[in-house]
Amino acid sequence: MAQNRRVLLASRPNGAPTPCDFRIETGPMPQPKEGELLLRTRWLSLDPYMRGRMSAAKSYAKSVEVGDVLEGGTVAEVVETTNPRFAVGDVVLCGNGWQDYAVSDGKGLRKLDPSVAPVQTALGVLGMPGMTAYTGLLTIGRPKAGETLVVAAATGPVGSAVGQIAKMKGCRAVGIAGGPEKCRLLTEEFGFDAAIDHRAPDFADQLAKACPDGIDIYFENVGGAVWDAVFPLLNDFARVPVCGIVSHYNDTDLPAGPDRTPQLMGAVLRKRLTLRGFIVWDFADQAKDFARDMGEWVKAGRIRYREDVVDGLEKAPEAFMGLLQGRNLGKLLVKVS
Amino acid sequence: MAQNRRVLLASRPNGAPTPCDFRIETGPMPQPKEGELLLRTRWLSLDPYMRGRMSAAKSYAKSVEVGDVLEGGTVAEVVETTNPRFAVGDVVLCGNGWQDYAVSDGKGLRKLDPSVAPVQTALGVLGMPGMTAYTGLLTIGRPKAGETLVVAAATGPVGSAVGQIAKMKGCRAVGIAGGPEKCRLLTEEFGFDAAIDHRAPDFADQLAKACPDGIDIYFENVGGAVWDAVFPLLNDFARVPVCGIVSHYNDTDLPAGPDRTPQLMGAVLRKRLTLRGFIVWDFADQAKDFARDMGEWVKAGRIRYREDVVDGLEKAPEAFMGLLQGRNLGKLLVKVS
Predict the structure, then answer these.
(1) Do B186 and B209 lie in a common domain?
(2) Domain boundaries, position A162
(3) CB pairs under 8 A between A and B
(4) For chain A, how long is the longest CA-to-CA vector?
(5) ipTM higher than 0.90?
(6) How many domains does chain A fold into?
């Protein structure tokens, strides 16, 4: 009889997660009750936000408790059902987390049509990361033709969509990524106007040269040294959608001084900057617009995407640790079955 | 024959301005040419933004050069004219700076009607500070009934208007000021729901108690210790119009560490804060709405204001140094003639 593997939070990471913070447990299959479905995970999405869920700090979503299954978006297949709305073989978008099987009452599941797009794109370009790019860029960034946009982690599922949408809106798109391979991908595959390697010793100078007219939109998803290089280049009235600060997620202390808060607030004032944080569900009312637009753009080849697939649930912890260090190239997915 | 006194920038202040940074010079009267007017200053406005003009640092407006007359909004009377649009005795709003007399070609002058409101209100509640409050609060703060607003320097011309407009919009208004006299004025004269003395040793605790439901709008005009007390109380989706950071204007160095930038950006993200800097002229297209609304509100007694009048141009430097330390009570004006 089949068993269910589950990846649990073994302990809260102190700094960067280590293998000891995860534990794989094999146990009995969950048993659906009348009207419920049994779902087998096909794809598990790994995303930087999960680092926040591993921490006890208060945030927009509840923490995962130590001993619980780690959370995550999934694409799963219906393997048993007594729920008349679903048939065996249906593929659905769900949030079953880091495990092989889960039971559902059907609520909140979205059926996916494999003939429209590969089902795992519902976890990437056509899912949460794509919608994060779409809503944050269009609603907060408000790109206008001729403006300069900068985004880091630019080969990732959010950054690559941000850059490509900005290009469609007539912006100059400058992408930041780690290493020559990713940088090549930015200009050759994703159509960025310039790509800068944040590992280069003269990274800040290179960025300044790539933005001769300054920066009008900085889509913030990393913080740290990238923010430091971007900050002096921001133009008057620049917009900064704050989507993530992944370079800080493993911080255990604040950086050494001086305290640059007054410098930041002074620039917000003098340059009349807008800094606005968001999470994708704040813009849930744009889901239909996103699905329509992004669906068309992907189909027409105007938005491209890249996937980085890891085979096997047992590899998820290592892949996730690598994600926080930028080791993936494209949307990081675990092929579970 | 009359002479013209002018207050010049003698040197750029290093930290807080001192008397040595100013120089009063008496010289010949300026001579209007054909079509020009000679204006005698009646009122000079003193405002915190002038500290920025004394500095060489790049900002939204050009610095005053050493040896030049200090800039400032003025109300002046026409004493000579060959310009048919103006008559001797007309009172106008202008920007003649810290001097007794100036010549104008008439461009950019706004005639004031003394029967509508005391002419010096064109420098306060019905002028730049009032419009700063109106535009920043309504456009960026977007107050909604039941929300909590906090503003510091709350007896000043901006803060007092911010609090009173917020009350009209149904907010709980909490004002911060220095000393018991100002705090009494906040609740008794300006109708704030609570007033907190930032000099109290338990200031941050008092602020937290005065905001039992957190803070939805923080109108930022001071920075420093007030920002530190406000920051942890900000609610999800709070808006922070950044209008000034007067507590930092005399800073010569950044404060000691740690660097709290990641803490700020993390909160912007998790709480989905909006921080947006502005200066009043960014909202020049709202000038008519402001004049209409604020004119009505002041006439109806719904918006009150307080003036702190210093007699004599020679007192301007000392009054300005006191302004940066919060020594004034209400809109600081110099009665020049």
Answers:
(1) yes
(2) 128-282
(3) 145
(4) 67
(5) yes
(6) 2
